[in-house]
């Protein structure tokens, strides 16, 4: 049996990964259990890639925040709202290493009302100086969780605090889906 086509595709993908220095990639369903397993893999891969301890901590915390955002905000639930138990949401994350910098990317579909809130939050975070980010982070740690928040509201601030460049994001319409695709990138 000859599988040259499949093997060639695999080889091409592998060459692409090597060329881009991708140290972690996942596209599929996210749940808390899957995030925990991926977090272990990210820790190990960052160590193998030679990241110093402070960089590994920043990569890990930003990765977890991105993955949590997918679980909380992806418009692609695998179970209905009325179903009991944890949900799984679809999205993608990858981490690459180029020129002594690590780039964390995530992507997932979001409903338009969620997209609007994400855009407002990210525009605000991106407008802050590093000192303002640190002050806002401490304020939120001490305050109560907002009613409409899935967490303490610290995710984007955590990533911005750990990043070596401003967070980058984009919201792109999806054809015929009624949702937008949310892309986020953090540079460590």
TrEMBL record:
MF GO annotations: kinase activity
Record's keyword terms, sorted: Kinase, Transferase
InterPro entries cross-referenced by the UniProt entry: DUF6272 (IPR046239)
NCBIfam families: SiaB_fam_kinase
Name listed for the protein in its UniProt record: SiaB family protein kinase
Organism: Herbaspirillum lusitanum
């Amino acid at each position: 049996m000859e599988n040259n086509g499949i093997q060639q595709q695999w080889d091409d993908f592998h060459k692409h990964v090597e060329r881009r220095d991708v140290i972690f990639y996942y596209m599929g369903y996210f749940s808390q259990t899957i995030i925990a397993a991926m977090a272990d893999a990210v820790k190990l891969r960052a160590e193998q890639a030679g990241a110093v301890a402070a960089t590994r901590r920043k990569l890990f915390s930003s990765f977890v925040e991105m993955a949590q955002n997918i679980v909380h905000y992806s418009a692609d639930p695998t179970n209905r709202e009325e179903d009991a138990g944890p949900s799984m949401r679809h999205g993608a994350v990858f981490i690459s290493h180029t020129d002594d910098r690590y780039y964390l990317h995530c992507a997932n579909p979001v409903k338009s009302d969620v997209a609007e809130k994400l855009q407002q939050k990210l525009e605000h975070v991106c407008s802050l100086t590093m000192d303002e980010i640190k002050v806002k982070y401490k304020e939120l740690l001490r305050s109560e969780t907002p009613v409409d928040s899935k967490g303490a509201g610290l995710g984007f601030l955590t990533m911005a605090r750990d990043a070596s460049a401003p967070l980058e994001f984009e919201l792109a319409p999806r054809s015929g889906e009624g949702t937008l695709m949310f892309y986020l990138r953090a540079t460590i």
